[in-house]
């Protein structure tokens, strides 16, 4: 099985194994009127062997001049590959192993750039200024700049970005100061200001990130003795709510992660709360995690997403997967540590219950993803044998997160518990921080760490590694039990509803609005997800359920989305026919202007609605198509069968 996994990154056309970028200097200007970024990228490269050219990944870039060591050269741009883009060949004088070269490429982005989303001012909170943000993972950085766009290359970068609106990058700001006057004291929307940033830690190209808009900053109080700063950025209209939501938990979570995994190396940990078109819950861009506004609930019930994103500072941003086949090393480890931190930050009498609750929610999402990939079973694997030029976006799901986290949980239990695995975790991070590795390298290091402990090696050998790495199917190779302390009460309520299905008159049902009083938001999610595992409830039961609990009116998307999946489960039911339009209206923001751009919500609901009424679903999607991020559009259209030609 391992022989099927590519050695070189199957999504990059660059010759990074021969010569690789160590630092890139970006000099950009943002033009909101023309909707492009223009300027230059100057690469400092080191040869790993004798080489006569360097090849960069590009995608829908308008390439201008190319200079090598200060002299203009004739570069060659290959025809466009539909997934990988165009390889840019830059000739070099014969460069010997360990020698350096400097390559400056002048270019501009184009309107087809999938990494950038440009928002009209009407789609922002303030509705006064336009907005720009990027999403480069997994292979879209090449549409923002000519790069060796592979996580196998880790580089530092510095940047100067000129814009009439405040600019944020995934690096530490040099000037103007974050805590100074907005936009350096100049007039926002009128005066051009040059923002300077520097990223001193080596990162993969997919972590290059930019945002620009009417942005404000407010700091958090950092625990005494910590060497980093932290705060939140967003539009002024959201700043009070965002600061309240995250101010208590973010510094506390980061301090706990630092105690567990080792020093935080990026100096700054800020949050940027983005507009609703952002397609993910969060994106772990170094120094500034991009976050969905759906986390702002007013009760701080969803802030654990921050734990996931900041944990990437060690697992992903620090220790990085070599390429898409090994993506689980990022997300599986991060999800495992996130859930371990959930246990450790709570009192010991309830901590294991919170960890178990998270695993139960994750397992439901994992099973849904595994079922979805029945037609493409290789995407059910933890280590995926991507073909050269295959789009990794097509494999994006909860599999690497939750199958990976369950493997590490099994590893913890097999080795003897948390106290045994934590010293290994710190050594793993210490060994590979700043490097990109494969699954085989990780496993070899694991065995090496315990090589003098014969009992532990014997225990490790009981794990069916091939089944975990390369196995397909809709179940895990080993069934794991979770702490159900906080799950049982939610499951019991769902079981009662299921058992009541034969009672024809809803007035005879023994349920009250107070049923939910003893359930927090995550337990309510578990209740609904449990309900969805049963055959669809009768229509009158569904009307009664919503009448009691008001799920269709709730603003917490983590609860409203699974409720809608319960209602739409039987596509032929009167309840599904009645609710489908309101579900679609909620997803596209009809009447509110707030779309559900996060793919965790919009993709399952579009799929479910499509089974109920395809005509209404396609009409709703087409009416709001441009409001969704390009990555979300591609996958929604894949789900709806719109790009099968």
Keywords:
645 residues, single chain, 22 strands, alpha+beta, 35% helix, 20% strand, eight-stranded mixed β-sheet
Structure notes:
The chain is of the alpha+beta class and 645 residues long. It is 35% helix and 20% strand. The chain is built from 18 helices and 22 strands. The chain has helices spanning 236-246, 249-261, 304-311, 328-345, 351-372, 399-415, 418-432, 439-449, 454-460, 465-470, 488-499, 521-532, 539-549, 557-567, 574-588, 599-612, 614-624, 630-639; strands at residues 19-31, 36-47, 51-58, 62-68, 71-72, 76-77, 86-95, 100-108, 116-119, 131-134, 154-163, 167-169, 172-175, 193-204, 210-212, 216-219, 229-234, 268-273, 282-283, 288-291, 320-321, 436-437. The strands form five sheets. It has an eight-stranded mixed sheet, with no helix packed on it. A hairpin with a 4-residue loop joins strand 19 (282-283) and strand 20 (288-291). Helix 5 crosses helix 6. The longest helix is centred in the middle third of the chain and has 22 residues, at 351-372. The chain is globular, with a radius of gyration of 25 Å. The protein starts with 18 loop residues before the first strand and ends in a 6-residue tail after the last helix.
Task: Give the class from helix and strand content and strand pairing.
Answer: alpha+beta
Strand content bin: 15-25%
The number of helical segments is 18
Low-confidence region ranges: none
Biggest sheet architecture:
8 strands, mixed
Instruction: Return Rg in Å.
Output: 25 Å
**Distance between the terminal alpha carbons, to the nearest Å?**
32 Å
């Amino acid at each position: 099985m391992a022989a099927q996994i590519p050695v070189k990154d199957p999504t990059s056309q660059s010759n990074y194994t021969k010569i690789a970028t160590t630092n890139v200097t970006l000099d950009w200007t943002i033009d909101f009127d023309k909707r492009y970024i223009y300027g230059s990228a100057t690469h400092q490269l080191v040869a790993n062997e004798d080489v006569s050219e360097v090849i960069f990944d590009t995608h829908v870039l308008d390439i201008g001049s190319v200079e090598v060591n200060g002299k203009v050269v004739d570069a060659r741009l290959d025809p466009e590959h539909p997934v990988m883009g165009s390889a840019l060949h830059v000739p070099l004088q014969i460069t010997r192993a360990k020698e350096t070269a400097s390559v400056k490429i002048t270019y501009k982005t184009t309107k087809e750039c999938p990494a950038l989303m440009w928002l009209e001012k009407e789609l922002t909170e303030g509705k006064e200024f336009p907005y720009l943000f990027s999403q480069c993972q997994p292979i879209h950085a090449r549409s923002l700049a000519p790069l060796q766009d592979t996580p196998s290359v880790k580089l530092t970068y510095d940047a100067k970005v000129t814009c009439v609106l405040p600019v944020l990058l995934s690096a530490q700001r040099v000037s103007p100061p974050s805590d100074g006057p907005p936009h350096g004291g100049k007039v926002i929307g009128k005066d051009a200001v040059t923002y300077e940033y520097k990223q001193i830690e080596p990162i993969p190209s997919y972590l290059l990130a930019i945002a620009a808009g009417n942005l404000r900053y407010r700091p958090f109080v950092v625990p005494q003795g910590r060497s980093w700063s932290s705060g939140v950025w967003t539009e002024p209209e959201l700043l009070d709510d965002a600061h309240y939501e995250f101010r208590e938990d973010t510094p506390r979570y980061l301090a706990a992660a630092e105690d567990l995994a080792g020093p935080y190396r990026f100096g700054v940990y800020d949050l940027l709360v983005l507009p609703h078109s952002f397609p993910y819950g969060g994106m772990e861009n170094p120094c500034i995690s991009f976050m969905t506004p759906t986390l702002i609930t007013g009760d701080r019930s969803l802030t654990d997403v921050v734990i996931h994103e900041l944990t990437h500072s060690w697992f992903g941003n620090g220790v990085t997967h070599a390429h898409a086949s090994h993506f689980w090393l990022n997300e599986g480890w991060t999800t495992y540590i996130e859930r371990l931190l959930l246990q450790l930050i709570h009192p010991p009498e309830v901590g294991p219950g919170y960890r178990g609750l998270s695993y139960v929610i994750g397992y439901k999402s994992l099973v849904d993803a595994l079922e979805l990939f029945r037609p493409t079973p290789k995407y059910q694997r933890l280590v995926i044998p991507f073909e050269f030029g295959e789009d990794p976006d097509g494999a994006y799901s909860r599999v690497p997160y939750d199958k990976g986290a369950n493997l590490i949980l099994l590893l913890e239990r097999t080795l003897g518990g948390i106290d045994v695995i934590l010293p290994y975790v710190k050594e793993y991070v210490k060994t590979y921080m700043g490097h990109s590795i494969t699954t085989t390298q990780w496993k070899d290091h694991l065995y090496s760490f315990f090589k003098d402990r014969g009992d532990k090696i014997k225990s490790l050998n009981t794990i069916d590694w091939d089944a975990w790495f390369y196995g397909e199917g809709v179940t895990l190779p080993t069934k794991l039990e979770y702490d159900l302390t906080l799950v049982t009460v939610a499951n019991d309520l769902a079981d009662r509803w299921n058992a009541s299905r034969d009672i024809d008159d809803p007035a005879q049902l023994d349920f009250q609005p107070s049923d939910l009083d003893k359930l927090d938001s995550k337990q309510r999610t578990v209740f609904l997800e449990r309900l969805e595992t049963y055959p669809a409830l009768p229509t009158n039961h569904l009307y009664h359920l919503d009448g009691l609990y008001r799920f269709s009116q709730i603003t917490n998307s983590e609860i409203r989305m699974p409720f809608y999946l319960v209602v739409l489960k039987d596509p032929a039911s009167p309840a599904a026919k009645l609710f489908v339009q309101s579900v679609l209206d909620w997803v596209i923001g009809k009447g509110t202007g707030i779309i559900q751009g996060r793919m965790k919500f919009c993709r399952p609901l579009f799929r479910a609605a499509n089974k109920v009424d395809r005509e209404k679903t396609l009409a709703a999607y087409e009416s709001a198509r441009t409001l969704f991020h390009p990555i979300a559009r591609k996958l929604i259209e894949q789900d709806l069968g719109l790009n099968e030609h």
